Amino acid sequence: MALTGGPHQPMTEKELTDDWFERALTETGDSTDPDPEDEGESSSAESDDIGEAASDAADDTPASDADEETLFDQGFGDALSEVSVPQLDETSAPDGFSDVDFGLDTDEPDFDEAVESALPRIELGVDGLDGMIQGGIPERSLMVAIGSAGTGKTTLGLQFLNHGLENGERAVYITLEETRERVVNSATEKGWRFDEFVDAGDLAVVDVDPIEMSTHLDAIQDELPTLIEDFGASRLVLDSVSLLEMMYDDQARRRNEVYEFTASLKAAGVTALMTSEAARDTAYASRHGIVEYLTDAVFVLQYVRPDDFRETRLAVEIQKIRDANHSREKKPYEITNEGISVHQQANLF
């Protein structure tokens, strides 16, 4: 994917580092992509091919290339040195279940006592899911939605931004999977006015080729806080962090690069939501088991397939939210033409 949403073309160093964010705000290329599945996840084979190509490209790129030019007259590389690093904590996967059904429960979900905090809170904009969070998400939190293909991760990200845009906020959507045009079209098909928000300058949709991003990641993440601050965004979505992780074969380097990138998002001062593929053997961990330890909130989106072959359902669970109490129940949800709706009063049993 090119930065302007058109077909992929090789890019020079200058083309990548010269106002890539500003160019994404003003240019809209024609999309020639075929119509993929609703969530636009890349196949495993495609991801593996990208990972090998990116690894070769990264090895051949001189270390000085990323610093050759800055995106602004005044750089923001020193911002990361002042970032408050999130503390790692352990997460655990709850036991699975076999018999699944839906039933109505008139009792309110059980919540812990409220956490006293002066942190401002915001709503995600998802019916039912906001009700599972007592008091709302603390502003400037870094969140991740983990799920397999088709669980609605991209829809959750679009819905999260739309809620802020409808309330007068500005937002940024960074995609490593889709073109700029397709992201806007997907949102407008659900009745969200992304085309209007883009035209009004309230929404920036930036499509970045993952290979080019990996080879110039240092330059991008150093300038990201300034780009977002200058744009005035309060919400950001990255779809998806899994493609960034796949760029690196070495686990130590992968962990370091993802840590540095999440630190740049924290420095940007926005409330950010990343999407991530689930691990192949469990729904409760990301593919590489990294981002859930670097984020403030983790939402698990999963399929529920009962043993008696009844209809497959979707369920959401909040694995953690720092500085906010929340329901620890698994709740069913559905993806409609209007987005995601969580059935807070329905139970899985």
TrEMBL record:
Gene3D superfamilies xrefs: P-loop containing nucleotide triphosphate hydrolases
Compositionally biased residues, Basic and acidic residues: 11-25
Compositionally biased tracts (Acidic residues): 30-51
UniProt superkingdom: Archaea
Comp. bias intervals (Low complexity): 52-64
Keyword Cytoplasm recorded: no
Domain annotation KaiC: ranges: 120-349
InterPro entries to which the protein is assigned, alphabetical: Circ_KaiC_arc, KaiC-like_dom, KaiC_dom, P-loop_NTPase
Location of the region described as Disordered in the Swiss-Prot/TrEMBL record: 1-71
Organism listed in the record: Halovivax cerinus
Nucleotide-binding listed as a keyword: yes
Protein's name in the database: KaiC domain-containing protein
Record keywords: ATP-binding, Nucleotide-binding
Alphabetized GO MF terms: ATP binding
